[in-house]
Amino acid sequence: MNTIWKSTGKAAASLRMAVLLSLSAALGLGLAACGSSSKPPAASPVTVHLYTNILTGKMIVHSGSPKYSPANMTVPAHSTVVLTIYNWDDGTAPLPSSSPYGAVTGGSETVNGSSVTSVPTANLSHTFTIPSLKINVPVPPAPTAASGSPKEPAVVVFTFHVGGSGSYTWHCMTPCGTAPGGMGGAMATPGFMEGTLTVA
Fold first, then answer.
1. pLDDT of 31 above 50
2. I need a labelling partner for 101 at 20 to 30 A (CA). Which of 20, 38, 152, 157 fits?
3. From the centroid of its chain, how far is CA 148?
4. Whole-angstrom Cα distance, residue 60 to residue 24?
5. Is there a contact between 170 and 199 (Cβ–Cβ < 8 Å)?
6. Would you kindly state where each structural domain of the chain is located, as residue ranges?
């Protein structure tokens, strides 16, 4: 290289220009290659927290009508949902031992801080069930104080993932309403033991 830069005349000038152009081209290709390999950062997964209470008929002054409040909820598409249910109802609505609604399906559940995979069907108070998403959340009753009133709620935390947008109806599957068999009243009334999960 020292010999090249000490040369004189038009030939030397042409040679210097050729070397500079070669270096510039090589540098440009290197930058282009670096740019083509870069990727935009992956979007962070979205986690949404939902909260609902199961209130007794006495609490809402509507005898015999337990109620999820709120009953209708909205979450973003492709998100992880952490649903916390505070059950203030200390009553049970048992199902046969063969019933599938004692099992946790479609996600993971804790009851009062402890992980569970099921709740005994004889000790069910309510469920939060979305058949089209194969989700079932069994809910045990609130503990009862000596006075006969619940001293604190049973706290159920259920974590699940939703996909694309849609509207999904959830139901309580235990006979906790009125009429023969407990399937009337609140059980057949949207906004009580039935509601909608909207994925937008």
1. no
2. 152
3. 35
4. 78
5. no
6. 2-37, 46-199
- Angle formed at CA 122 by CA 129 and CA 175, multiple of 5 degrees: 50
Tally of helices (H runs) and strands (E runs) in the chain: 2, 11
Whole-model pTM: value is: 0.78
Put residue 48 in one of left, alpha, beta given phi > 0 → left and psi -120 to 50 → alpha. beta
Note whether 101 and 175 are within 8 A (CB). no
Tokens of 190: 């949207």
Number of Cβ within a 10 Å radius of residue 67: 22
Locate 162 and state its tokens: 């939703």
Inter-residue contact 56 to 142 (CB < 8 Å): no
Q: Long-range contacts made by residues 15-20, C-beta under 8 angstroms, separation at least 24?
A: none
CATH number listed for the domain at residues 46-199: 2.60.40.420
Residue 182 burial (CB count, 10 A): 15
Amino acid 40: pLDDT = 64
Give residue 147's pLDDT: 79
pLDDT digits (tens, 9 = 90+) for 98-120: 999 999 999 999 999 999 999 99
Minimal CA–CA distance to 68: which of 171, 163, 179?
Answer: 171
At 21, list the tokens: 């152009």
What's the pLDDT at 16? 52
Cα(120)–Cα(140) distance, integer angstroms: 8
